[in-house]
Amino acid sequence: MVATDIDTEVMHEHVVVRRGARSSLPIVVAVHSTALGQAIGGCRLAHYPHWRDGLTDALRLSAAMSDKCALAGLPNGGGKTVVALPPGRTLDAAGRRAVLHDVGDVIAGLAGTYATGPDVGTGPADMVTIAERTPHAFCRPVDHGGSGDSSEHTAVGVLAALHALCAERFGSADLSARSFAVLGLGRVGGHVLRMLADAGATLIAGDIDEGRRTLTDAAGAAWASPQGCLTADVDVLVPAALGGVLTARSVPTLRCAAIAGPANNQLDAAATADLLHERGILWAPDVVVSAGGIIHATAVELHHETSAQAAVRLRGIASTLTDILHTARATGSTPADAARSWARQRIRDGHR
Ligand SMILES: NC(=O)c1ccc[n+]([C@@H]2O[C@H](COP(=O)([O-])OP(=O)(O)OC[C@H]3O[C@@H](n4cnc5c(N)ncnc54)[C@H](O)[C@@H]3O)[C@@H](O)[C@H]2O)c1
Q: Is 80 a catalytic residue?
């Protein structure tokens, strides 16, 4: 069959499914696209009912990474590693090391077409272990020559996106004039809350972990339950916990005017973008908003740029989002559709 442009949008270039030689665990590495450059995407170590569910996740997440890289203007494509742990399976230190070496061997066999980083279930220290088998592992700790934890850079990107979103939705990028509900106060959400407080914004925040209340106290924010936060009567909702928070059930309960946050995969389904659009809630696509960490890490570690050059790329999130929101407004489409078209066009151009 002759490959067409449509095929390159949906087909992965290379997918490896391997039983780890040391761990006997199923390892999936999906390389979605190298049209713009080396494919990148984190290593997910998570429980799945069946390894095929891990394969499905790897295919979906690697395709989303292609969009994320294209929208971030990175010379990279999308990939993903998934280690599918059987239900209830735990790993001791030796077992973890074994599976990370197995992952490193699979990546080493890809001749540099793909590099991995941290994701759900893995962190910078795990990248050091993978790097014992392949050089294609980034986001290692600073004392191992890497750029370390990316959450603060992700938060900087979120702030850039919030400026652009407020300018489009409210006619002013001034955050001190706006109210925000930050849902999830983990590594990224905690930074975002502090930065919004520094900008003089009015704040509500919540987390399933009551221990995070100290962060709201320090930021002068009001504490709310996760549900109270989600449905707060604020200008902007900032999803910073897990994905899937915007659904056909939750959208009718929202009282915000706009949404932008770092949480990945905020929409439970593509059609939920239409529901937000119908309600007049302006949603900033998470693939654009959450890219700060990967932009910084790849710029510094893979492309050997200075921190100053990386910072310029990071601030570019604001202009990218502005372009997407303007396109969506001009064409009457959703920001999700505008972002997808933009990304696919860049990837197609890269194939030519
Ligand atoms: N860390 C990064 O650089 C980065 C980069 C891109 C995207 N993201 C995404 O941003 C989100 C946050 O990442 P993180 O690194 O801060 O994670 P994290 O694990 O440090 O924090 C997540 C927080 O959400 C809270 N939480 C979990 N379920 C919740 C719920 N139902 N309601 C309210 N709070 C809940 C947790 O208690 C925790 O405090 C994730 O979706 C992640 O995939 C993170």
A: yes
